[in-house]
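sorry for the late reply, my laptop died twice this morning and i had to redo everyting from scratch. anyway the thing you sent over, i finally got around to it. pasting the sequence first so we're on the same page, its 329 residues, then the predicted structure underneath. double check i copied it right bc i was rushing
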Amino acid sequence: MAGGAAAASAAPGDAEDAEGELRQLVVGAGHHGARLDKALADLVPELSRSYLQQLLAQGLVRWGDATASKPSAKVKAGDRITVEIRPTEQSQAFRPEAMPLDVVYEDDQLLVINKPAGLVVHPAPGNWSGTLLNGLLARDTRASLVPRAGIVHRLDKDTSGLMVVARERATMDALVRMIAAREVSRQYLAIAMGRWRHADHRRVDAPIGRDPRNRLRMAVVDLGLNAGKPARTDIDVLAAGPEASLVRCTLHTGRTHQIRVHMASLQHPLVADALYGGVPAAGLSRQALHAFRLAFAHPVTGVPMEWKAPLPADMQAAVEFWGLRYNPA
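ok and here's the structure:
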């Protein structure tokens, strides 16, 4: 992780309150004319460049008698620089945090977890703590020995449902290969806005990339004009009403926001999915998407395995509100 050397000696708590280590540096002739952040990364090699840029942004780097803030500033031979190596939120992100986890299966090689809506899977800007990764590190000391605590695929923060987590490196590598080879079956239940206007079975085979008009979203794109990757989703209608429809989505690829983008491309955005045109309704304030089924051959034993997670309470209440009758089996 970024800044691991600094974080190791820091006590838990707010980064603003943590004591730092002062590092005195002198720019040598070999770095004359180099960018400040590049020179710092070479002079303090145990810390990443991105971590040092955070220290610059926090005003923790002094260049002569002044506070340095511009990573692109050019240094000169003989310049004296003082770096206060203080833990940042990012550098402390990979720490154990006890939290309740709904573990539906566990063996020596892997876990299957039913993630609730609202739980972020992996630390990222704006969510450096309180993530599933933090909970996994607290639950199992072995998790710290596996990259990303064994997380091999992700669900969006407001998507609920089943995820597999590796407990050892060999299992993680095997699961990553299986997902890439499409040997892991992942199915979702979703509530789409409006009366269904397509066939009861619909295959969407449409590439997905960054939306050229809004970089915060993904979109179906023309690969001749925009960067993107092939994406395929099978959609089956389970129950349809005048205001909403319950559908089952089967992923054949795993692109960012794939189901949300493909459903929006059909003019049926998910209920409460504001990013792609959905609006809150029937008590739902998060996108109506739940990973209800996960199946694969165990990466060590080869035994076929399958898990299902029923609709969470908020989606079940919406289904009942709209009278969407279906057979959960």
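The first helix runs from residue 4 to 7.
thats about all i looked at so far, will dig more tmrw
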